[in-house]
Design a protein that fits this description.
Distance between the termini: 50 Å
Structural class: alpha+beta
Number of strands: 26
Oligomer: single chain
Number of helices: 12
Strand content: 25-35%
Length: 478
């Protein structure tokens, strides 16, 4: 399966995959190889927050697709994946459920209402997220949009389940292929018909072609193959829309599935595994992807250091990284409590009260609401202080709840290895936890939730087994 890769994980993934095409000049130089400019059956792109990647697949070879997904899933224990309910390129009859200042929210499908496949469907071991509403900017439609309207829309940007953003929609239908894009009912760009005219393959009727600047690096045979591939996909879109009623009668409904979109979240161990892949091709400092995932400025710093100093150190330089980019004592950080279902819960801002050179970070939060601390059985009251001690790379962290210096109990969360980024601490919760009550009683809780997550394909069994072992060790230590 041919793959086009872009983003901060590109070098590592180019080393991982067998048939990368349309490589950037930097990758061609790095691998000292002449990559084909043939059509890409899958596109792999880094997410906007640099926490993972999206795999957008249009191939008809479900076996190759599954093999690629398996290869990514096997990177490390903390590599997690979810299929998108609103995949890129999907075409829907959407119902406007809310109008905002800059656009409208459209309900496009129910969680289990997937459009017909545009190609052979593989078996689906990955749970779909429940993100079924998209956002249509007013600039992407010529008509005034009001609540209750029904529109034909296409997903231009799918979103990972951990993102707060909704998938982006457009009323223009396109088929994209890296080197070129076909637009349904559009107009071919100025000066570009000449190129299409000299190619043996023809642009499908009713569609206009526009070429990406990278098409200059392809030969005529490769450009013809691009048109043929995009033309076949355009024909599938025409067929999907030909026999359906007006969106007003169908919404919410999926006409065409578009790409098979899978989101991969990379944990700390995944990033270090990707470092090893990258190191096989070029100079790679310890923690390369871990640092780049933290901030854009940190990403640029890594490139500079590697060019000047080469391979740097034998251990991850936590103190240097946090000292330069944060967080530091007095800074506010959020706690990104990821869940195996794909979403993230923000546990609220906290203040960094201590930072050690050995990967340790202490964060204090003041409670503002009333209730009960889960599993501890003690009251939560405004003014309580939660002191959480994180250690970079550890599979667990403790939080002690106090009021006026008196403990209300300790809650130890079992999770994927902790990562301390400049403005947020990130991990994925693995359900099972260990608590120590004020009277000293130690109890392990929520094993049943972990078992249910495994049964629902939210947590792979090897990761669940690791979580159980960590919980047993923490329970014995307490």
């Amino acid at each position: 399966m041919t793959v086009r890769v872009r983003g901060i994980y590109t070098t590592a993934l180019t080393a991982l995959f067998d048939d990368v095409v349309q490589a950037s000049p930097a990758i061609r130089d790095r691998f000292d190889d002449s990559f084909s400019m043939a059509p890409a059956e899958s596109t792999v792109e880094t997410t906007a927050d640099r926490q993972g990647i999206g795999v957008h697949d249009t191939s008809t070879d479900s076996g190759a697709y599954e093999a690629a997904i398996d290869r990514l899933s096997e990177l490390a224990l903390d590599t997690l994946a979810w299929q998108a309910s609103l995949p890129r390129g999907g075409i829907f009859a959407g119902a406007v459920v809310e109008t905002l200042g800059s656009g409208a929210v459209l309900e496009c499908a129910t969680a289990d209402d997937h459009p017909p496949a545009s190609s052979a469907e593989p078996s689906d071991p990955l749970p779909a997220d429940d993100q079924t509403a998209g956002f249509l900017p007013y600039s992407k439609t010529a008509d005034r949009v009001e609540e209750g309207d029904r529109l034909l829309v296409q997903v231009t940007e799918s979103q990972p389940p951990w993102s707060d953003d909704r998938p982006l929609l457009d009323t223009t239908i396109r088929v994209e292929g890296g080197l070129a894009t076909l637009t349904r009912g559009g107009t071919t760009g100025s000066g570009q018909p000449d190129l299409a005219d000299i190619l043996p393959a023809e642009t499908p009727e009713g569609w206009a072609i526009s070429w990406d600047r990278t098409a200059d690096d392809a030969d005529l045979d490769e450009l013809s193959a691009v048109i043929e591939t995009l033309g076949a996909r355009a024909e599938t879109v025409d067929e999907a829309l030909a026999d359906h009623s007006d969106p007003g009668e169908m919404a919410p409904y999926g006409y065409h599935r578009g790409d098979r979109t899978v989101w991969f979240w990379f944990g700390r161990e995944s990033r270090f595994a990707l470092d090893e892949k990258r190191r096989s091709a070029t100079t790679t400092m310890v923690g390369h992807h871990r640092i780049k995932a933290g901030a854009e400025s940190a990403s640029m710093a890594v490139d500079f250091v590697e060019r000047i100093c080469g391979d740097v150190g034998s251990e991850f330089p936590f103190d240097v990284v946090t000292g330069q980019f944060g967080p530091q004592v007095g800074d506010a950080v959020s706690i990104g409590h990821g869940k195996p279902a794909g979403h993230v819960i923000d546990l609220g801002p906290g203040e960094v009260t201590d930072r050690g050179s050995d990967g340790k970070l202490t964060v204090e939060r003041e409670m503002s609401s009333r209730g009960t601390y889960d599993a501890l059985g003690t009251k939560r009251e405004p003014g309580d202080v939660a002191t959480t001690k994180f250690t970079e790379g550890r599979w667990w962290y403790p939080t002690v709840y106090r009021r006026d210096g008196t403990s209300k109990g300790t809650y130890v969360n079992i999770c994927t290895p902790v990562e301390v980024f400049p403005s947020e601490v990130r991990y994925v919760d693995l359900h099972v936890d260990v608590v120590k009550k004020p009277d000293g009683t130690v109890e392990r809780v929520d094993d049943d939730e972990l078992t249910a997550a495994v049964a629902a394909d939210r947590v792979p069994e090897p990761l669940a087994e690791k979580a159980r072992k960590v919980a047993s060790a923490v329970e014995n230590a307490l």
